[in-house]
Amino acid sequence: MSNAFLKSMKAAVILLAVITTAPFALAQARGQAQPKPAAPAPPAPRLPNGHPDLSGVWSGGGGIAARNLKPGDQILLTPEAQKIMEARQSKDDPEANCLPGGVPRMNPYPWRLIQTPTHKPETHIFIMFEGNIHSYRQIFVDGRTLPQDPNPTWLGYSVGRWDGDTLVVDASGLMARPGLT
Fold first, then answer.
1. Which tens digits make up the pLDDT trace of 39-52?
2. Which of 13, 39, 114, 158 lies in disulfide reach of 126, CB 3.0 to 4.6 Å?
3. 0.85 exceeded by the pTM?
């Protein structure tokens, strides 16, 4: 390589170093705080059995609707689902009638997840719904299977299992009512 090329590269590196550090040097000279790099997120809390600790109050999201999407995103529905959505009326909404919202349902109210294993495997996870009628959903995580023909209830019969750090919940026996299906 030529001497001139090496000298120009050295000058470019020095110029780059001056340009990138000058704002920090000026801020320090003026007594201003320097920006700090973002701290890495702490690891998720864990229960004694190693599963993620989901306990605590979770905030509702207000629902999944086109008005809550980022620009350019869209909700794709099958023609059958689109027909159901267009036929729904607010008077048919269970929450508008002080009834449980059912599963799945996003709502604006907070809810509390309760896990209580200490020295043995967990058997239940509870979701306490703090809005509307103050109901709860019980998820069995003790290895049982879904019943073949459960009596329908508002929140159904739920069994869960851990797939790594993901809680997978299957439900059956959900009441077939407008707004729930």
1. 888 888 988 888 89
2. 114
3. no
